[in-house]
Every structure is written in structure tokens, then in C-alpha cells.
Write a structure and sequence with these properties.
It is a single chain. This protein is α+β, with helices and mostly antiparallel strands. It has a single domain, classed as Sortase (Sortase, Chain: A, Beta Barrel). Helix content is about 25%, strand content about 25%. It contains three helices and eight strands. The longest helix has about 60 residues.
Length: about 260
């Protein structure tokens, strides 16, 4: 009877191969766990953290505005343009509005100074100056495009917000229909806009949507031709990408003092 002889070198090679396969498997499992944790962090934890922070900021603004007496709301017509530029009726002015404001009325960068409410989406988030991701958008805030108008003034009050992750305040803005109300609250007034037009998809470089009289440069049929009091909401589309932009426009329909 013949007995097969297995050389020591062959056994060592097989042992090394088994160890290599085992080590490779461990590396793949570890990478899978790390990727899963990253996905959980990005899709769940950042949302929870940003939403909690945004809710606290909204509550802080409400307390701040509620604590102020009537004397704190008096507007000096010589220093604040709101006393003369806030429209009492949402009719377009006879001349094209300007997007510049006096330095005294410009909010500090990254400072939350207003509250955006969209009843249809059950959304209530702070509005901060600027569109910086780390300082504004990633906090779950909605950011005001510098250079565009302030709420209630002639021109275009333009805002940006995340559609996915970091609170995703604009996750469902695609569900808005014509006539849906959007409220913007400041220390002194509440401005109500009504959704009027939507651009489901346009280029990220379509700067026409931010002009004083907003009009898409990619889709010229979408937008406006006459000065007025406009609100613009922008976010990324399709979901979980930043390739294109979704745009919602509204017109001012009413204003009431707080």
C-alpha cells in the first residue's frame, strides 16, 4: 500500500493561504462595518443632530422676540430701511427693485435672524445669513443668499437648504403646489408668500433664479418678467446628489406686524 507524501513546503503554503484568506475576510468585514457606520452617521445622526439644533434655535428666537417690549420693536426711520421699504400691498413697484441693502440692516454672517414656516410640509426652521455648509446649512438651517433681498422687500428673497442629510429641511419641497403658503417671521413682522411656480430641475449654475426678477437662464419660460416681491427656495436634485437644482418660487401676498 502506497502512502502519499505531502511535503512540508506544501503544508506551509496551504497554511499561509488560509491565513491570508482569513485576514482578507476580516478586513472586508471591518470595512463593511465602517461603511455602514458612516452611512448611519450621514443619514441618521446628522439629521437628528441638525434638527435638534435647529429646533432649539427656533425656540430661542421665539423667546428673544417674545421677551422684547414694544419699545424694542420701534423702528428708527432714519436708520432702518424696513420702516419705508416694507410693502403694505404686494403690488410690483413701478421700477426694478435693487438687491442691495444698507449695512445697518444686513444680518451678521451665519446669524439666524428669521424663521421659515411651511405648513404643508410641517416645517419650521431658522433662517441664517449666508449659505456656508459648516456654519449654516449643515446645522439644519436654511441659508439666505447674500446679495438677494431681505423678506418683505421689493426684489427676490432667496434661500437654500439641504434636501438630504443635516436636517434636510427642503427634503419635500417638490411636494409644494401653487397657492401653498410659506411664512417668514422676523422680529418685527410676519410675511406670507404663496407658491407660484416651480422649476423641477435646472443647472447648479442657473444664476437667473436668484436675480431681483427671477427667471431661469436654462428654462426661459420659467420665471418672471416684472418687478415684484418674490421668494425663492433652492435645493439639490435628484435626491442624494448635488448635480442639479430644484427651484420653488413664491409671491408675497400679505404682511402683518408681530
Amino acid at each position: 500500500m502506497r502512502v502519499s507524501v505531502v511535503q512540508h513546503s506544501t503544508r506551509r503554503w496551504r497554511a499561509r493561504r488560509r491565513r491570508a484568506l482569513w485576514a482578507g475576510g476580516e478586513v472586508l468585514v471591518t470595512l463593511g462595518v465602517v461603511l455602514l457606520l458612516l452611512v448611519v452617521h450621514q443619514l441618521w445622526w446628522t439629521n437628528r443632530q441638525a434638527r435638534d439644533g435647529a429646533e432649539r434655535r427656533v425656540e430661542a428666537l421665539e423667546r428673544e422676540w417674545g421677551a422684547g417690549g414694544a419699545e424694542d420693536r420701534l423702528i428708527d426711520s432714519g436708520t432702518s430701511p424696513e420702516a419705508s421699504e416694507e410693502p403694505r400691498a404686494p403690488e410690483p413697484p413701478p421700477v426694478a427693485p435693487t438687491t442691495t441693502t444698507r449695512s445697518a440692516s444686513r444680518p451678521d454672517p451665519s446669524h439666524a435672524y428669521a424663521i421659515l414656516t411651511i405648513p404643508r410640509l410641517d416645517l419650521r426652521v431658522p433662517v441664517a445669513e449666508g449659505i456656508s455648509k459648516p456654519d449654516v446649512l449643515n446645522k439644519g438651517y436654511v441659508g439666505h443668499y447674500p446679495g438677494t433681498q431681505q423678506p418683505g422687500r421689493a426684489g427676490n428673497f432667496a434661500l437654500a437648504g439641504h434636501r438630504n442629510t443635516h436636517g434636510e429641511p427642503f427634503r419635500y419641497v417638490n411636494r409644494l403646489d401653487d397657492g401653498d403658503e410659506i411664512l417668514v417671521e422676523t422680529r418685527d413682522a410676519v410675511y406670507t408668500y404663496a407658491v407660484d411656480q416651480t422649476v423641477p430641475q435646472t443647472s447648479a449654475r442657473d444664476t437667473g433664479v436668484l436675480r431681483p426678477v427671477p427667471r431661469s437662464l436654462v428654462h426661459p419660460a420659467r420665471g418672471y418678467r416684472h418687478p415684484g416681491y418674490y421668494l425663492t427656495l433652492t435645493t439639490c436634485t435628484p435626491e442624494y446628489t448635488s448635480t442639479y437644482r430644484l427651484v420653488v418660487w413664491g409671491k408675497l401676498i400679505s404682511m402683518r406686524p408681530r
